[in-house]
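Our preliminary data section would be incomplete without showing what the modeling component actually yields. Below, a chain of 326 amino acids is followed by its predicted structure, encoded as tokens that our downstream tools consume directly.
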Amino acid sequence: MAKTSKQVTTGKAFEYALLYSLYERLQHHGIQVDIIESTPYVTARSCFLSIGNEDQSADRLAASFAVNLLLDLEPKLTHALNEQDTLQLEIVSDVAGEDGDVRDVLAIRSSQDWEIGISAKHHHRAVKHPRLSASIDFGAKWLGIPCSSEFMERMKALFLPLKERRSQSKATAKWEELGDYTESLYIPVLEAFKQEICAIDKAHPHTVASQLVQYLIGRMDFYKVIKLDDRVEVQAYNLHGTLNQSASQAKPKAKIPRLKLPTRILDISYAAGSKTTLLFTMDEGWQMSFRIHVASSRIESSLKFDVNLVSSPHTLFINQLILPKP
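Predicted structure:
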């Protein structure tokens, strides 16, 4: 199902907690730092203020632990070139994620042409939630390679009846009215998707695996901060080598390896015992699951993927910080 308003609120509240914790710590270090008060920032701050005091405290605690680690990993956060070298903090619009930029919070030094980004996750590890429909050319959008006309026609045949039913019912028809739509919809869509991505991969060898990971994981290097019940986990996706840079004589306190992107899709098959989840296995240690599902109780003319990273290269930097019990 789609994210509830509560999930959206808690997610954006944690984005704000990370940004503001970073702001407070940098100010404490005497760093010249400004917050870009954009619409996404105002929204995130409102979400943070709307949650209870206990949840605010928990978010701030988790954020502070993550920020302490980030300051050790990124010396440029605390080292300016001169008094005009101001650090700016910004919350990114959700629209950026549609183009493969999954970062939620940015720290920017324009005078150094430098920035780092943070992807904030509140009690979940999902990578991305892309959709399939009659009009979405996933090949062009995800991979930069258009899908075949045959695939798009197949999608129209599967999805347009849903659009018509939704229209006729004035958006009140429910999925349950279709009976077993796993057999009638999920499996045909997954089979068509699997066949198309295999065809694109065959026509463009050593391209699809890399583009797929970058679209889903993120085209820009970033840190992922995941807030869980008893800990906060920090992962570093250093795909292009832009993280963990020294600042003049100041060096990071830990080294973050550069991750290798995959070059080949080794296998696409259904997860054991599942008719709704495809497993993509690639070289360099990458494996992802694609679970297809409906996004609401009412019929829509699209389906959504819940994409999760099943395995990653052994060089992925992961640090788990145990939070004190309340």
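The first strand starts at residue 33 and ends at 35. The longest helix spans residues 5-28. Preliminary results of this kind motivate Aim 1 of the renewal.
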